[in-house]
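Fig. S4 source data, part A: sequence.
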Amino acid sequence: MRSVQRSIAGLLFVVAGSASAAGCSDDGSTAAVPPSTKAVVASTTTSVRPEATTGDTVAVPETAGPEPTGVPGLDAADPFCSAWAVYSGTLQAIGVGGAFGGLTNAEVARLELLASPALSDAVGGIGNRWPSDLVSERTPVLADLIGPYNRRAAKAMDALRAAGVSDDELAQLRVVWLDALRTRSGEDPVITVAPLGGELEAKVQAAALAFDGSVTPFADDPSLQVGSVTTPLTDAYLAEHCPDLASSGVGDTI
């Protein structure tokens, strides 16, 4: 995957390739995974120090520090960049969790429900802060690239409300999900979300079962296959103006 911002299409490309490689490999090799799910691999750069007694030198391995936690760009000064970080980070968390975390469809649906208020807010923030330089791509991005995910998030919130989740509880889910994005570990394919209160958790579980039963699973939803949507100006803008996002691949083309 070279671009998270090109919605989950780039992620699913890697997921499909990784699953295929894992299924066909007989040599025990590990399939490639997105950067956010890679375990830290210790570097083997060597330093040389004098040996106290012989004057010889010995190679001393230096290991890399732990991978930084949290989705890059959430606290960007530019609200457009920070909203895009929530959007892209959310899609990656759901997609990677479903592909590599061993989650059932109902468990992925629960992640979608937990994320839906924050995702909806992020899409609104992107639209409300749309740069004038990108006016020609506003409709393709908001309607065709981001739109399918926003519409799915709206269905998720409808399921939450149908299960009795109040507006105050939706606000609580926003906070819980944003906190999870801020502390997300790149070593764990399944994002860690703080426990909900018993009553709210019961509502979310009921909503997740209903949502899973009525909506095509996230990874199989054909409306989310948006890799053919081309937005070169937006890609370039994100790469140039949102450095934290660029560091995680947002703004690249697939």
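Fig. S4 source data, part B ends here. The beta strands are 46-50, 57-61.
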